[in-house]
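Technical annex, item 7. During the second reporting period the consortium partners agreed on a shared format for inverse folding records so that results from different sites could be compared directly. Each record opens with the tokenized structure and is followed by the designed sequence. A conforming record, contributed by the partner at site C, is shown below for reference.
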């Protein structure tokens, strides 16, 4: 929640911590943060305590889906790094310069084997 700009006090009673942990296991962090963001956007007053979200709707969040979602982490979708010095480790792209001095970027053929052009005769 802090990463999303929601800073609240987590001072709670022991049973509220247990309820929060139950919601966390059942619904997951993403659903809880999404709910908090939506609630914060609708609130005219500053929200100071996490118990506001717990009492206001976290308890009613549905269970998280068992279906796999594509990761929002861009590095998770990246191919393995080939280690070539001409290949950028972050983007897995290479750069070349043509006869006119113009540079172009293209997928590394080692890191992106599907992008390789087969030159079968």
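Designed sequence (site C submission):
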């Amino acid at each position: 929640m802090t990463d999303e700009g929601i800073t609240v006090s987590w001072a709670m009673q022991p049973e509220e911590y247990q309820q929060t942990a139950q919601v966390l296991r059942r619904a997951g962090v993403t659903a809880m943060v999404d709910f908090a963001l939506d609630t914060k956007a609708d609130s005219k007053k500053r929200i100071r305590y996490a118990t506001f979200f717990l009492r206001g709707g976290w308890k009613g969040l549905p269970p998280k889906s068992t279906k796999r979602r594509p990761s929002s982490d861009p590095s998770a979708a990246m191919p393995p790094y080939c280690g070539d010095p001409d290949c950028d480790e972050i983007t897995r792209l290479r750069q070349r310069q043509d006869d006119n001095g113009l540079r172009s970027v293209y997928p590394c053929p080692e890191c992106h084997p599907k992008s390789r052009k087969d030159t079968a005769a």
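The chain has a mean pLDDT of 81. Helices lie at 14-27, 29-42, 51-56. All partners now use this format for quarterly exchanges.
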